[in-house]
Structure formats: structure tokens, C-alpha cells
């Protein structure tokens, strides 16, 4: 069993290439008594602190004791929280994203389950179990001065019970399959806007050394039944952070899948640091959650660096799908491509995409492009698309574009003239729209399961066209 402080191999599920780790879940009858809660070096309340933030922070620090590797990060984040207020639509980063239902909830620290499989050439487990010769603690905090993250990244830092580490030694090419991280979150009956909200805070650190390659599949799902729209009592909040460090010449293919219950929330930060000649390919599929907010910060730290981002969101009744990305290029010959797609199928659905690419003065001969495409299937839909290029260098090739609308009539006509009814035609076109992103997941096993899930979501309760 994986306790809050360390990983232990489960003897009945171990093999040469697969290992499974678990945090105690709310569904286990017997759980070990948690150790005393950690004491932060500084209080998380002062005269100027937002009382709502202070109350939530104090409740979340009642979770089991964190790994000692986390203590410097917890201390830094506790200081940062002293000056933060709960984000509102008056704050620019949250101008289009309403988080008030989380603010009014009664948070309760909650465990989560983590099942993990990995190629034999890659270490995956608790940071406490990593050999001391691999000193990677310095990589733990991607935001040492607190200028990149926000309230949610700080809350994760003070509440995370441990750090799950994926470590790929120099020169290793993990070709036996991806590292698969599957996070499961429990729900409680009697949830709702003002009810008790179980909050889980997983944290992952990925370190890929010089010349190494690895694939990662990161899944976030709900546990138990009652995850459909008409379920009035189940809710949970996952607040996760993933840090990725790619050294010179390293390559990471990262797939992120979020299909949590429709009354839940998932706030997530992903920090990526890429050194010279490294490559990072990221594919995101989000279909679940009442609120899904992903903040993605990528910094290219050397020349000849490549970053490719693809995302596909589906927003149904009372859902907010939000992606905020920030890519910083500081060195010559950087390459960056970003494609964001979204389908909104209900009038109460909402989608937000705010993407920023900053090309600084030394990033000459940069090639960067952004494209956002959104399909609206209902009237009075709220969609915010805001691609942005900040270019200081003068020798670059950069572009961005946006397209928003319903399906084209001539596309539907093509199907109708071949005897296919309109609804079947619409379903086929919508699926093909998302399939461009799904097909970029490089692992067939997961690509097939995601394809089935996306098809199920798109065909459920379709709303007539505009």
C-alpha cells in the first residue's frame, strides 16, 4: 500500500515492467492513522490575508504529514498565500472563469488513488524512494519567487501529501511503453454548492536527463457511480501540479486526459522547463468536470528547442472548460506550435482559451504558431478565445488564427446527398473534428479508449444546431 509518506510495492500486482501504488481511498474500510499534521515555519494568516483563503489553507494543511522534501516548498507557498485573495472575475487571469462555487464550499482534505505502470528502465515512485545519488530536490519548485503560479498552485504545495517522481536517466529511451499515471478521486454524498467538498492535492515531478526519451499518460478520473449530469449529490475537487524538467536533447510525449464527474472541479498547473535541443509534445483531452481549469507554463531554456501543444475540450451543460497557456522563448531557433479545439453543445456551457507566446529579444529565427477552432452547437453560448503573440525579436516567423461557428452547411449537404440523416452526419463531423487531436496521442491502447469516451460524450444529449 502507498501511505501518505512513502510508496510500497504491492506484491500481488508487481511485475518486471509494471508496478502499482495506491493512496488510501475513501472506499477502504481500514486506513492507517495519519501522522500529526506538519507545522509551517510561517503562519498562513495575517491582518491583510483574505479570510476565505486563510480558512481553506488551514483546513488543507490538516492533511497527513508531507514528505520532508516538500517542506521548503510548503514554507515558500505559505508566505505567498499571505498576500493572495480568492480569484474573482475582477482579476485578469480569472476574468472569464467563475470559481465562486469552490469559494463557497466547505473543503475537506481527501485522499486519492494512484495506479502507476512504468517501463523497467524508468524510476517511478515516491521521491523518498529515489536513490540519494539522484539529487533532484532542486527541481521541485518551478516557481521559487511565486511570480508564475497562483492561489491554486500554492494550495497544492501546502496540501500535497507526497511527491510522485518519474525519473529517466541520461541516454535512456523508454520504448517499452509510456509511464501511466492514473489518479482517481472519490466523491461524497450530499455535496453541492455549499456542501462539504473533498479536496485532493496530487503532485508529480518528471525529470528527463540528457538525451533521454519517455512517454507519459496522465489520467484524472472519478471513482464510484453517479457521475452523470442528473446526479445531484456527488462532487470533489482535484487540485494538481505537474512539473516537467527536460535536459539537453531530451524528449517527452505527454498526454493528459481529464474525464472527472460532472459536478467536480479540476484545477491544474503544469510547469515545463526545456533545455537546449529538447522536445516536448503535449496532447490534452478534457470532457469532464463542472470546472476544469488548466494553467500551462512552458519556458524554453536553450536554442533549437521544440514545443508542440494540442488540446481538445468538450463543454456540455453547466461546464466550464478553461485552458490558459504561456510559452516563453528566450533562445535562437525555437519552434512552437499550438492547436486548440473545443465543442460547446449546450447554452449553459462555457469555454475559455487564453494562449500567450512571448518571443524575447534573443529568440531570433523563432517559428511560432497558434490556431484556435471552436464549434458552437447551441444559442447564447459563452466562448472566450484569446490567442496572443508578444514579439520583441525582429527575425521571426509567427502567426495565429481563430475560427468560431457551427458546422458548415455544405459539409452536411455532402452527407445528406448520400442518404445519411442530418444527426448522423453531424455526429460524424463532430467526431472527426476532435479526432485530429485524439490521433496525436501516440499510444494506441489509450487512443482507443479515449476515442470511445469522446464518441460517447459527443453523442449524448446533442443540442440542435444554431
Automatic annotation (TrEMBL):
Record-linked InterPro entries: Fe-S_cluster_assembly_SufBD (IPR055346), SUF_FeS_clus_asmbl_SufBD_core (IPR000825), SUF_FeS_clus_asmbl_SufBD_sf (IPR037284)
BP GO terms, sorted: iron-sulfur cluster assembly
Region (Disordered): 63-87
Domain SUF system FeS cluster assembly SufBD core: 198-433
Pfam families documented for this protein: SUFBD_core
Protein's UniProt name: Protein ABCI7, chloroplastic
Amino acid at each position: 500500500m502507498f501511505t501518505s509518506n512513502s510508496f510500497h510495492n504491492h506484491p500481488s500486482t508487481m511485475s518486471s515492467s509494471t508496478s502499482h501504488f495506491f493512496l488510501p481511498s475513501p472506499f477502504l474500510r481500514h486506513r492507517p492513522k495519519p501522522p500529526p499534521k506538519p507545522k509551517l515555519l510561517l503562519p498562513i494568516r495575517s491582518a491583510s490575508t483574505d479570510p476565505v483563503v486563510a480558512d481553506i489553507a488551514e483546513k488543507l494543511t490538516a492533511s497527513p504529514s508531507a514528505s520532508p522534501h516538500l517542506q521548503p516548498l510548503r514554507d515558500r507557498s505559505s508566505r505567498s498565500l499571505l498576500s493572495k485573495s480568492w480569484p474573482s472575475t475582477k482579476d485578469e487571469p480569472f476574468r472569464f472563469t467563475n470559481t465562486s462555487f469552490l469559494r463557497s464550499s466547505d473543503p475537506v482534505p481527501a485522499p486519492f488513488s494512484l495506479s502507476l505502470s512504468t517501463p523497467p528502465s524508468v524510476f517511478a515512485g515516491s521521491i523518498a524512494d529515489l536513490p540519494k545519488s539522484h539529487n533532484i530536490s532542486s527541481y521541485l519548485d518551478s516557481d521559487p519567487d511565486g511570480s508564475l503560479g497562483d492561489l491554486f498552485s500554492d494550495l497544492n504545495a501546502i496540501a500535497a501529501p507526497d511527491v510522485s517522481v518519474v525519473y529517466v536517466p541520461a541516454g535512456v529511451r523508454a520504448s517499452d511503453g509510456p509511464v501511466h499515471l492514473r489518479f482517481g478521486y472519490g466523491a461524497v454524498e450530499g455535496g453541492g454548492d455549499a456542501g462539504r467538498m473533498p479536496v485532493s492535492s496530487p503532485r508529480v515531478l518528471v525529470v528527463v536527463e540528457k538525451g533521454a526519451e519517455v512517454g507519459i499518460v496522465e489520467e484524472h478520473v472519478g471513482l464510484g457511480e453517479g457521475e452523470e449530469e442528473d446526479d445531484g449529490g456527488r462532487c470533489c475537487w482535484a487540485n494538481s501540479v505537474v512539473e516537467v524538467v527536460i535536459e539537453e536533447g531530451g524528449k517527452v510525449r505527454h498526454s493528459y486526459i481529464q474525464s472527472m464527474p460532472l459536478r467536480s472541479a479540476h484545477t491544474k498547473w503544469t510547469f515545463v522547463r526545456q533545455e537546449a535541443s529538447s522536445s516536448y509534445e503535449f496532447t490534452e483531452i478534457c470532457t469532464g468536470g463542472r470546472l476544469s481549469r488548466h494553467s500551462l507554463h512552458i519556458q524554453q531554456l536553450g536554442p533549437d528547442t521544440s514545443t508542440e501543444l494540442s488540446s481538445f475540450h468538450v463543454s456540455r451543460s453547466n461546464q466550464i472548460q478553461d485552458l490558459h497557456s504561456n510559452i516563453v522563448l528566450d533562445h535562437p531557433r525555437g519552434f512552437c506550435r499550438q492547436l486548440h479545439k473545443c465543442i460547446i453543445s449546450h447554452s449553459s456551457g462555457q469555454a475559455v482559451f487564453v494562449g500567450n507566446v512571448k518571443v524575447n529579444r534573443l529568440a531570433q529565427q523563432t517559428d511560432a504558431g497558434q490556431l484556435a477552432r471552436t464549434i458552437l452547437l447551441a444559442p447564447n453560448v459563452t466562448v472566450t478565445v484569446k490567442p496572443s503573440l508578444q514579439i520583441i525579436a525582429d527575425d521571426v516567423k509567427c502567426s495565429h488564427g481563430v475560427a468560431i461557428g457551427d458546422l458548415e452547411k455544405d459539409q452536411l449537404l455532402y452527407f445528406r446527398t448520400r442518404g445519411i440523416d442530418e444527426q448522423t452526419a453531424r455526429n460524424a463531423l463532430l467526431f472527426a473534428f476532435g479526432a485530429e487531436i485524439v490521433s496525436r496521442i501516440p499510444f494506441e491502447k489509450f487512443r482507443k479508449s479515449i476515442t470511445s469516451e469522446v464518441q460517447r460524450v459527443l453523442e449524448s444529449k446533442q443540442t440542435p444546431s444554431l
